[in-house]
Write a structure and sequence with these properties.
The chain is of the alpha/beta class and 260 residues long. It has one domain: Purple Acid Phosphatase, chain A, domain 2. Helix content is 23%, strand content 29%. It has 6 helices and 14 strands. The strands form 3 sheets. Strands 1-6-7-8-12-9 form a 6-stranded mixed beta sheet, covered by helices on one side. The chain has a 6-stranded mixed beta sheet with strand order 5-4-3-2-13-14, with helices on one face. The chain starts with 7 loop residues before the first strand and ends with a strand.
């Protein structure tokens, strides 16, 4: 298993689209299976499109977890097998993967990491990071890259009913990473895009510049109900094959466009 801080380098000739995937919660009764299957087919057929896996691919209820094991519609072992089969057709489009808090249940209880197992089965274990993945994306011809993007992907943490709580927490983490162009986070199911910036000292030119970065919180693949209703959480938009959040990394000039 690679160290979290080992950078994953990816190189492309033309601009690319990245779809952040997190909080699929395969195995939950609220999992939106029909739209999830359609989405996988869409990614398989769409040129220059890639995905990052930001955790909670499985619901993975265990005896010690908040989730009720008796409400699972698929056992954890079968969830892992099914997720492998879902991802096989798009394995060449996966840029990285990290674990979420639902996978960490097995890590804590039995030192078993389902996301790592999935990536190993896909022969992509070199693209797995347990806590955070750092991506260096270069776009252009070999030896003459026009744009370089530094991207961090993590599942996220913390509660909070309101969207602002998740936005504040994610932006705060982004401010900590110098040189960051894009931070991709899951966990909160909120589905947000913000574009903060920070001031940067330039000692060579004796100026202070303003560097923007993009913070994305991905949507979940859950319909509203169950645990969310029980805890009186706010309903959030659910990802579908038609309205998936995406980021377009342009070749030149350097720019990240976002759309739904």
């Amino acid at each position: 298993m690679e160290n979290d801080f080992k950078i994953i380098i990816k190189q492309f000739h033309n601009e690319i689209t990245i779809y952040p995937i997190s909080d699929v919660h395969l195995g939950s009764i609220e999992h939106n299976a029909t739209e999830w299957k359609k989405f996988i087919e869409k990614i398989k057929e769409e040129p220059n499109s890639y995905v990052v896996l930001a955790g909670d691919l499985m619901n993975n209820a265990t005896r010690s977890s908040v989730s009720n094991i008796f409400e699972e519609v698929i056992t954890p072992g079968k969830q892992k097998q099914m997720m492998i089969e879902y991802l096989k057709p798009i394995k060449d489009k996966i840029l990285c993967a990290v674990s979420g808090n639902h996978e960490r249940r097995s890590i804590k209880d039995a030192d078993d990491d389902p996301t790592y197992d999935i990536m190993c089965k896909l022969d992509l274990e070199h693209l797995y990071r347990r806590n955070v993945a750092f991506l260096k994306i270069q776009i252009g011809s070999e030896g003459k890259f026009r744009s370089t993007y530094m991207v961090a992907v993590t599942h996220g943490a913390g509660g909070g009913i309101y969207t602002g709580a998740a936005v504040n927490r994610n932006e705060r983490f982004g401010y900590m990473i110098d040189g960051l162009d894009c931070l991709i986070v899951g966990h909160s199911h909120k589905g947000t895009i913000t574009k903060p910036s920070k001031l940067v000292f330039d000692p060579r030119n004796n100026v202070v510049t303003q560097k923007p970065f993009t913070v994305v919180t991905s949507q979940s693949w859950l319909s509203y109900g169950g645990y969310a209703v029980q805890k009186m959480l706010l309903a959030a938009s659910t990802a579908t094959s038609d309205n998936g959040l995406k980021l377009i990394f342009e070749k030149r000039p350097k720019n990240i466009r976002t759309s739904w």
